[in-house]
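Before surveying the methods themselves, we first show a specimen of the format, giving the amino acid sequence and backbone structure tokens:

:::
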Amino acid sequence: MAATPPVCDFGWKAVDFDLPATDGKRYRLADVSGPNGLLLMFICNHCPYVLRAMERIVQDSAELQGLGIGVAAICSNDPVAYPADSFDKMVEKARDWGLSFPYLHDEDQTVARAYDAACTPDFFGFNAAGELQYRGRLDAARKDAAAPGLRRDLFEAMKQVAETGAGPEEQVPSMGCSIKWK
């Protein structure tokens, strides 16, 4: 079932966490934050919205890292009900996708609840002060193929955050599969 998160609550402060990652390490908020901000994404392994957009997510994330934006992804789905989202499968997907950022496992779903994550993908863009500045879509393609020249909403918003500390006032919410709660 498709879900849509709420609009950006400008200034909302990022909540700390301590989660295991597919690279065998544990990460806290400070570990993944960059000097110019943080892009935190709630994704999963099986969602068709995520699968269709992953190449664009990887590309935009690498470019944003070059602008001083830290990047991390979190899978919070119930792996019992959705075995494709198990930690072992996350390790496989992180390798297959060639992620340049940590892919974190929120097994007890406390981080997803703290962030009020609604869907996969759900993008949270924070400035250097840890204040929410973007909660919108990757782009207009959603789970369709991206047309040549399609505006990169997430990239442009986070580039603005890196340069000015503030996100765009106009934002279009993301859309994706609902978080699979326990």
The chain has a mean pLDDT of 95. Residues 79 and 86 are 5 Å apart (CA to CA). The two ends are 16 Å apart (CA to CA).
